[in-house]
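2024-03-11 09:14:02 DEBUG pipeline.ingest accepted 1 chain
2024-03-11 09:14:02 DEBUG pipeline.ingest length=273
2024-03-11 09:14:03 DEBUG pipeline.predict start
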Amino acid sequence: MLTIKKIESLSELSELKQAYFAQSIAPLDGMWHFGFVPMAKHYGFYHHQNLVGFCCVNEEGYLLQFYLSPEINNTAQTLFTLIAQNNSSVIGEVKGAFVSTAELNYQVLCLDNSASFKVNALMFQNQPELATKQFEPIEMQAATTQQLSEFVNFAAANIGAPEQWLSQYYGNLISRNELFGYWQHGQLLAAGECRLFDQYQTEYADLGMIVAQSARGQGIAKQVLTYLIEKAANQGLKAICSTESGNIAAQKAIYQTGFTAAHRIVQFEFNHS
């Protein structure tokens, strides 16, 4: 059996993370893998003291990533079941997992241990030729450090995200020139994100947007997306995005601006028999 140890520095996993992203059959969601994963606890799998795999578990007890090198992959099912059945004294309680349908090996292991599952989010890739019509991009401005609190309050009010997390998240986006706003009569009505990847999936830009509740239903979402798609294209990047499975209004705007959704993020609850 492999040995499991807590990983203290994510730099130890650089090569394995590269292999993890390389084996996916479609780009993985940026918010999950670069927003949530770094905050999760990481554990390494060792074979004869060599690091051959890893997993990470968030504070709610859900696996977010799982990877085992191909040369040792014949032990993956046994190892995964050990973890899913809460039999690892190092990892402790694991309730379930979040996994993309683009992560085939990880998905199969989740299915083998599943008590139930549901679609959490849809993952989109942009194909401009599929847009229902050409939408006029809205004029957006790059956010400044002085506007951080305005964006934090805007997002907290319109999607209910926690302010402490937003402050750190938006602060990072502003420093990278990846957060944009649309104001009307001095009021922020929409926020848009065009997030670039530093190490993995560097050919993609991950888009995000929030439209004020008071301004929804006016076509602003499609104009924001058009602006962000063009911004990505101008940098030679392919646009991707995602949205919750229940957010029908956002999905409509995303589809109309030329995105397709071939993959899902699935939430699994494990069978602890």
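2024-03-11 09:14:41 DEBUG pipeline.report Residues 146 and 174 are 10 Å apart (CA to CA).
2024-03-11 09:14:41 DEBUG pipeline.predict end
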